[in-house]
Amino acid sequence: MPVNDFKKHPLTWQPSQVELTRPKYISLAALIERDIEEGRLPSGTRLPPQRLLADYLDINFTTVTRAYDLCRERSLVYGVTGRGTFVSANPGGERYTGKIYDLGAVQGFPSIGAKLIIDAARDVLSRDYITKLFSYSDRDGVSRHRSSGAYWLDKFNVPATQEQIAVFPGVQNALSTILTAIFHTGDTLAVDSFTYSNLIGAANLLHINLIAIENDKYGMVPKSLSSALKKQKIKGVFLMPNCANPTTITMPIERKKEIAEIARRNNVIIIEDDASLSAEASTSFFSLFPENTFYLTGNTRFISPGLRVAFVAYPNRFKEKFLNALHKLTIKGSALDAEIMSELILNGSAEKILLQKINRAKTMNKTFDAIFPNLARESEDMPFFRTIPLPCSNATGQEIEQTLLKKNIRICHSYRFAATRNPKMSFLRVSLSSVDSKTKLANALKTIKDFLNDYL
After folding, report:
1. Helices marked H in 190-291 — which ranges?
2. How far is Cα of residue 188 from the mean position of the Cα atoms in its chain?
3. pLDDT tens digits, residue range 338-380?
4. Which tens digits make up the pLDDT trace of 114-131?
5. How many Cβ atoms are within 10 Å of 59's Cβ, its own excluded?
6. What is the CATH number of the domain that holds 386?
7. Do 418 and 307 have their domain in common?
8. For residue 11, is it within any domain?
9. How far is 139 from 158, CA to CA, in rounded Å?
10. Residue 39 is part of a domain; what is its CATH number?
């Protein structure tokens, strides 16, 4: 219960306690950001002293401290020693300043969950067995890590035993290993019309041919894949069935079943890069066609981009070839990173972090929809990036990127993801998960909108 009489001595800001949700420091920071944006906290307003606000809300003092620190990181407030905390003159930062807003890289809200990750790292480093991980042993990952990976993948409907799991230093490394071990120079890999740009780069380095298959709003079109298989020899197909990068398309279950059956009939290898965020993920290709599917656990990249850990489920018939390539290309993944990731999974923190990031993604998607209402999504999923269609223009993708960079916005044009020359459409892929406040995101998106209205 509060000990002060706030009726006689009201605070400069009196948020509602009932609006606080867990984790409370993130919720409190969101209330500050909302009230700044809606004008209830004008620039220069002094926020209540931390101890008084903690008393008013009947919460821990450190919760308020962490909320204020988070707002300071987002340039919403600033502190003056001996005077207090104030709302910034330009909350979230100026438009057209020297600071680059990076909406190109999909960072996955890297600051969210930092405390949970740090706590797990400290716990791991204090254990008496930790020095056993400082070696080259266990090329595919120690048993505890592979077991954690199997437990995690099971949540995403990937029925792989720990004997089918290998630990890699990131999804990109796993993808490159699959291409090197299973494919050969001149082999053909079927992909979406717009696909993961680093896959295109890796295939070019390894001289693997890519063939773009027609897409619709549900992803790769089964009839188009069947037609391509009749015309030429295709060894594999690369798919991002959940929130495909860069299109954000999610493939429905029936479409997955059709493609899996086509792959089975033609003995085609499936490389499944899954970016599911929810443990309620839909049917995986691995569950439909496990004997020919490599499943890359894209969701772990969002827990912490700095923890280079990916769990890969692979078909047993490729085991030796695949693990030999892992050893020859990488030796092994980081056992220390894998130990921290395993701890996050087993103590429940990984799911908590993903939930926090999903909630943040909801906020950022609402910000995007407010500025581009005609692009609002009907689906309930909350992607970490969005696309903005571009009208016909004589400007190249590189020129558009450079023009926006001069306005302090780093962006990715669709030419980077095109698996075919001269695609029929073009767009911008916009990361919603790289800047640390929705005010900064709104400023950057308004800059892009102004550019589209004036330049194209």
Report:
1. 197-205, 222-231, 253-265, 285-288
2. 28
3. 999 999 999 999 999 999 999 999 999 999 999 999 999 877 7
4. 889 999 999 999 998 888
5. 17
6. 3.90.1150.10
7. no
8. no
9. 22
10. 1.10.10.10
